[in-house]
Amino acid sequence: MSFHYKDYDGLGLAQLIKDKQVTPEEVVQAAILEIEKHNSKLNAVINKFYEQGMPPISQTGVFAGVPILLKDHIQQEVSGETVTSGSRALQNYRSAKDSTFVQRIKSTGSTILGQTNIPEFALMGITEPKFHGPTRNPWNINHTPGGSSGGSAAAVSVGMVPIAGANDGGGSIRIPAAYCGLFGLKPTRGRTPVGPTMGRNWQGASVDHVLTRTVRDSAAMLDELSFVERGAAYHAPPYSGSYLKAATQPLGKTLTIAFSTQSPIGTEVHPECKEAVLQTMKLLEKMGHQIVEKEAPVDGAKIAKSYMNMYFGEVAANLRALENVNGRSLTFNDVEPTTWLLGLLGRATTAEEFVLSLQEWDKASFQMDEFHLNYDLYVTPSTAFPPSRIGELEPAGFEKFMIDLVGKLGWGGVLKKAGMIDQIVENSLKRTPFTQLANLTGQPAMSVPLHMTKDGLPLGVQFIAPKGDEDLLIQLAGELEQSELWLSARPTQTS
């Protein structure tokens, strides 16, 4: 039987296989053809498992025989395979065992075909690592697919696979979902596994899940990934229902929804990003929900700074761990200059500053919990700007000279004493200031593909729910998926 592979989502392909309308081998071969067709232009897949022969194909599981890609990230390690995290410094590293996340993915019956590109150590909202080169957006290859799960987003968007692994420590699921016209759900902290080598990732800010085109694929995968990981530092509120069932279950109630289009750090928001939210609010109001324009009751500047202090500290710790892996001290030339600079800033961050930053997270968590007593959901743009052009955000001229100079001389402490941190925070987050809040509070949040710019680039709208309420997000997303705003078209990858 001939079939149109890209017409089906993951569950649709699984049903075809179950009904014996196609074989798992035919589905996998169709996926491989799509990867080979598009990857030379997009650079989404940087490690192809099928080049060593046909990967193992499972006959059991909810996604039995369905092709999937994983993110080239330490949380999604596959036994015996390299995991570079986008860095030349890890080019010779091979995983000793599957991560718990990958164990759960394998239990779904998915066929893992390879790994997708990420920025070095998943640190950026764009995917342009020096080691593997930039990944391009299939809607317009001159633009970024976002990051850090940019390779996964590009692969799913163009139709290489229906599902790809992703994780989100500051927007790394939601940003690429927004830029590639996908559904991206960041689960509640502790909902999906982080083990077995660590009990938390980015102090609990980072959570692993997937990127998909359909709500039901994301929901079904969350059903399979969710469990109480006893050794983990955080456990999500228990949920005994089915997320897949929630995807097709009507809400049956009126929601009170707060929204804002203002940047929490006081920076510019592009008119198209505002319009995406305003159009969505009109639709939700038409659906019968109560809409209120109101900003979240948190100090956006403090949230941003506390996020960046964690970010600095985690990079410094990551570089120290790399020394153990490589058996030698690292130098400026081992990693990208910006990564080295972030590590220096981490070394210059005191334990006191780090703890005070975590206390800001907890304060924001209680503030948002009280906020949700009156508002079921909080809505913002997913990003403050449409996708940047490839290379647009690369440091240039004097900025690049200063990064190199500070990095080579080890002047991280000098930058802090000179009061440059606030400027670094603004420069780092001004294009994507909305997503970090849910990471720090541990709340679930999703980016929903509800807007196309005049230039033909997708934009997402972000919804944040109380902790443990992924089912509410999924229910609403299931309804929005049937609306006229939902971007159901695929990119043609011709520009």
Structure commentary:
With 495 residues, the protein is an alpha/beta fold. It folds into two domains: 5-252 and 451-461 and 469-480, Alpha-Beta Complex (Amidase signature (AS) enzymes), CATH 3.90.1300.10; 300-374 and 394-429, no CATH class. It has 16 helices and eleven strands. The protein has helices spanning 10-18, 24-42, 100-107, 150-158, 174-180, 215-225, 243-246, 271-286, 300-326, 337-347, 351-371, 397-409, 412-417, 421-429, 436-441, 470-480; strands at residues 45-48, 67-71, 111-116, 163-168, 183-186, 207-212, 256-259, 290-293, 377-381, 445-452, 458-464. The protein has an eleven-stranded mixed sheet with strand order 1-3-2-4-6-5-10-11-9-7-8, sandwiched between helices. It comes from Bacillus mesophilus.
Quaternary arrangement of the chains shown?
Answer: single chain
SS content category = alpha/beta
- The SSE string, one letter per element, is HHEEHEHEHEEHHEHEHHHEHHHHEEH
What do we call the CATH homologous superfamily of the largest domain? Answer: Amidase signature (AS) domain
Low-pLDDT regions: none
CATH architecture name of the largest domain: Alpha-Beta Complex
In DSSP terms (H or I, runs of 4 or more residues), the helix count works out at 16
Question: Major beta sheet, specifics?
Answer: 11 strands, mixed
Gyration radius from CA atoms, angstroms: 21 Å
Q: How many individual domains?
A: 2
- Cross-sheet strand order for the largest sheet: 1-3-2-4-6-5-10-11-9-7-8
- CATH level-3 fold name of the largest domain: Amidase signature (AS) enzymes
Mean pLDDT: 95
| Helical residue percent band | 25-40%
**Range of strand content:** 5-15%
Q: Shape from CA axes?
A: globular
List how many beta strands DSSP finds.
11
Distance between the termini: 32 Å
- The CATH class of the largest domain turns out to be Alpha Beta
